[in-house]
Write a structure and sequence with these properties.
This protein has about 475 residues and is an alpha/beta fold. It folds into two domains: about 1-395, Alkaline Phosphatase, subunit A (3-Layer(aba) Sandwich), CATH 3.40.720.10; about 400-475, Arylsulfatase, C-terminal domain. The protein has helices at about 1-10, 25-35, 40-50, 70-75, 95-105, 105-110, 130-135, 150-155, 195-210, 260-265, 270-305, 335-340, 365-375, 385-390, 450-465, and strands at about 55-60, 80-90, 140-145, 165-170, 180-185, 185-190, 215-220, 310-315, 320, 330, 340-345, 355-360, 400-405, 410-415, 420-425, 430-435. The chain has a ten-stranded mixed beta sheet with strand order 6-5-4-3-7-1-8-11-2-12, sandwiched between helices. The chain has a four-stranded antiparallel beta sheet with strand order 13-14-15-16, with helices on one face. A two-stranded antiparallel ribbon has the order 9-10. Residues about 1-50 have low confidence and may be disordered.
Amino acid sequence: MLRQAVLSLSSVRPRSQPLRYATTSLLLATFLALALPPIALPHAQGQVRDRPSVLLIVTDDQRADTLSALPAVVERIGDRGIKFGKGFVPHALCCPSRASILTGNYSHTTGVWTNNLVGGYGVFDESSTLATWLDAAGYRTGLFGKYINHWADADPTHIPPGWDEWFAFTENCCSYYGFTANVDGTLRQFGDDVYSTRESAQRAADFILSAGTEPTFTLWAPDAPHRPATPEVRYEDAFSGLEAYRPPNYMEKDVSDKPAWVRSRPRWDLARRTEVDSLRRRMYETLLSVDDGTDILLDALAASGRLSNTLIVFTSDNGYLFGEHRLQGKPFPWRASHRVPFLVRYDPLIETPSKSSALVLTIDLAPTIVAVTGAQAPHMDGKSLTPLLGQERSGVRSRAVIENSRVGSPSYCGTRSRYSVFVRYATGEEEFYDYRRDQWELDNAIADPAVRHQVTALRRFARENCLPRPPGFSW
């Protein structure tokens, strides 16, 4: 009923009534009884509750303003936890962002700057990640979906340290129908009748159910909604009535205040606008399967007795521009690139569901998970969000670094605060926007005397904390 209401409000005409993946609590309980070794279930559930489990859901290229396509995610995670309205990534690019999520560190600490094997996965230190820390702490760990770009180029049968169960897409982009996966060290080709989002969710659910009394760390990372954004057959054309996205900064007319690399970008013709509008609709349609997969996983947590003591996070590796400032994509310094969905549910700490305007980053997830589970980990750039889960109002930071290395734009370093962003490019050009006055980043206020002190403070923070500098950048 909830899905139908959302589809109706969006002027959607679904091809068929969505079918859940046969993972209701009743069916899962039956699976437990028939397929798993016999256990004294009440006692087992009591043991499970002693140590919290973790479910981390990381989508691919999902903007923060797309949650309307995910009613189950909102109802079962956001409405029962905390919705962070200012959740950001520090580096808006897939591979660097995922490395940061797994380690709690900025790109300038991980050394991962690109989506390529060189400068990306090839320099990533897999020996110290959430997987290794939690595995050492006695957790059963499993990854299902996307890992890090080009990992399979080095060795497609490789399983990184710390993972007890491994179901990882070998394609760099993107796995929908007809994909290959490394299944616990063995390559397996899936046919055109298997949809990767649903398959990976079901396998993650089976992993949770088969863990017995062990606490689990489950990372579910579907490729959705990354382009080409191939929707599941049942959801093809589901968002055919989605209104075209035309915010004030769409195909921005006057970019004279922007850096030279933006001024050189032409406005799109009708064909390009139509193409991107179609991509956006398909991205929304792929999210319907992500919503189904979330239901599958939360049903598995409930059936295994873990739901009431599981830290559940829903986020993405970066946002995406659909024509803002004449651009499409993600590695840019503006809010649509860096802002992501950021929902956290953890029943033992979050007594009252709420919305938070605190500035939080995806590098904060690893420290939070370590704090909740009691695992041992090295120092991280991120900060634990447990004070905010306990609903302290002070926040954990007032500023954060943003950075990029020669992808989509000149290399840049900058500072994001709750209400503003400052960025300096390798060219020496700078931008500043105060979102309380200019939420669409239309007027670069870097030279405005009224904000000189504010800009000076943000510039100093970036200069002192964006270290080492991104490749190609010098101050």
